[in-house]
Amino acid sequence: MTKTYPALAALALALCATTASAEKIKFDYWYGLSGDLGAVLAQTCDRFNASQDKYEAVCTGYDGYELVVQSAIAAFRAGKAPALLQSFDAGTADLMMSGQFYAVTQMMKDYNIEINWADYFPGIANYYSSSKGEMFSMPFNSSTAVMYYNTDDLASVNMPVPANWEEFDATLKALKAKNPSKCAYGYEPQVWVDLEQYSSINNVALATNNNGYDGLDTQYVYNTTSAVKHMEDIKSWLDAGLAEMKVSAGGMNSQEAFAQNICSFFFGSIANHSSLNIKHADNLNWDVAMIPTEKGVERHNSVVGGASLWVLAGKTEEEYRGVAEYLKFISTPDSIKFWVSNTGYIPVTASAYDSLVAEGFYAAAPYKGREVAIASLTATVPGPLNRGFRLGSMIQHRAEWLSEVQAALSGQKSVQEAYDTSVERGNAMLEKFAKTYAGKTLP
Amino acid sequence: MRRAYYKNNWIAALLVAPQLIIVFTFFYFPTAQALYWAFTLEQPWGGGNTWVGFDNFKAILGDSLYWASIWVSIVYAIGSTTLAVGMALTLAIFADRQLSGYKVYKIGMIWPYAIAAPAVGLAFRFIFSPGAGIMMFVNQMFPEIWNPVENGNQAMAMVIIAGAWKQVAYNFIFFLAGLQSIPRSLIEAGAMDGARVLRRMRDIQLPLLAPTFFFVLVINITDSFTDSFGIVDTMTAGGPSRATNLMVYKIFNDGFQGLDYSGAAAQSIILMLLVIALTFVQFRYIERKVHYT
User: Fold this and answer.
1) Please, which residues 100-139 of chain A have a Cβ atom closer than 8 Å to chain B?
2) ipTM of this predicted complex?
3) CATH number, domain A145-302+392-436, options 3.40.190.10, 3.40.50.720, 3.30.1360.140, 3.30.70.980
4) B98-157 pLDDT, tens digit each
5) Strands A145-150 and A55-61
């Protein structure tokens, strides 16, 4: 027995030597998608690693964007941050102000990788660009909000798909008259849909300074726009029983209520398209449409949601080369197709979208309907009020909005009072955010 | 009484060191950091901070909704502690009386403490869900009576019950141990003198249980201020309209989700001072009434 040991040791040594020589250059990539979507993201990593003999992406998933951004910050401060981070809209302002990132356009230029930046949909590119138009992060999982509706219910009352909120109101009344026991509209307060998308689509300001793009001394103004009336409409629908509150705390959220054929309408991200396809009641026939506008208002583009990929500062050149390869990999038409067909997200470049259309991708189920999101995002060329929002402390403002809307919907105060309070509190946050970055300007 | 001690102080220091290192690394160091951040405006990604003196505290304490959050936390602390201590004491007394099946019961009672707070929250979310859980039947009998999604008081009650349920197990262990350490002879003597069960409980068991009771009270109140966030997060997310926005949940929301490190740090300092003050009051005024044997 003892004689075999030296042989084994030599073998082990040889194995170590070979693995060391073939060792790939690793870089860390942290993402915040979880569940089914997180699993597909992990597959993009595997696909990249299988295609590479030089670099390896070490991908780590977190349960949610807040958590991954928070963890990345803690790691960054300890000098152990990932090279690539998936961060969401609400984290954009802090990252931009910090300057602790490597702008993707600059990085691709430094490593001589050709990317046709003009190919990105303007509605998406603008969100992740500086005020001068330089793209800071790589658009990846992009979505926008759409209206999901039950086609059978709509046909039963002979109504067209509502294009404005007045028609939507008439549709709810018709549905309720036809079938009083069915929930016409499963409502869930979503600041992203009820306020942010609304403001962009109807071309009204959420905040001054062109929604924060032009400076840090920004103030919210949505308590003076038609967004107030829209919220009052929602409240009147709820009060009249035309809409019903469907939130997780009540046992079922608006998406579940729609999927189980309990409610006829719900509003949500196009990213839910794929999970609705997989999981819905057998007797449910459904489709999606663009979110209605106010009557008489010209439709503008909706705002992109989802997340983008940020390259963080302070890594080695070798790691950056690996990251650049990865970003190049996910921008290939093949990768984009893999990503959009396995999730509900939309392609981020016009050419990828066109090639998908050309091969008939959107013509039939289960992908039919997702082109609505592209139509919504590209309805107009983004103007100053439709580029997106560059606002600090967005998460806390969203929480204040929710608290105030809950108070208004339960009848504790009027919608106007609720919005006034929410704006006032949001402004205090913006002021504090500006103070935190005193002396700095938005890039 | 003879005291045993180490002659070699180095060994003593070495033995205490791991504990001290843990306390310093995970308690004093973060506390000092939070204290510093509370007086500055800290940029989340590093890159500098500005000294602002008491501005953060002024902003927080000048906010009427923050006072509402303190009030909500106190209501939660009193509610969940009363419920958890009361239920645990009742259950422990029954277990101590060795009613049939008490052995199974003794072990079963300890389990809930091993369940993570978010899991408790999820379970109770289902139980109290107005449209899906057990409360749905109540709603069918009396329409519109239960709706914690819109009614803040009901949401609070729901969170208190879930928080107390989790804490009952912990309290139960201490109460049962306390009851079992009371000499049987005392109770038997009481019984021979003609005292009935309730009388024995009131005059013998409860007074002798006072030290345990005091300990459990302090732990429960502290715990309800600091450990309640998992339940709130899964059950109500602080809503509806801030009705269950406990101080600790607001800290989590502002700091960990909203990246407002300075504001969250200042709130942590306020919470810490509040818990210290409450503990002080308990030791100063309640412990006087406790007799250690």
Assistant:
1) 100
2) 0.78
3) 3.40.190.10
4) 777 777 877 787 787 788 878 888 888 888 887 777 777 777 777 777 888 888 888 999
5) unpaired
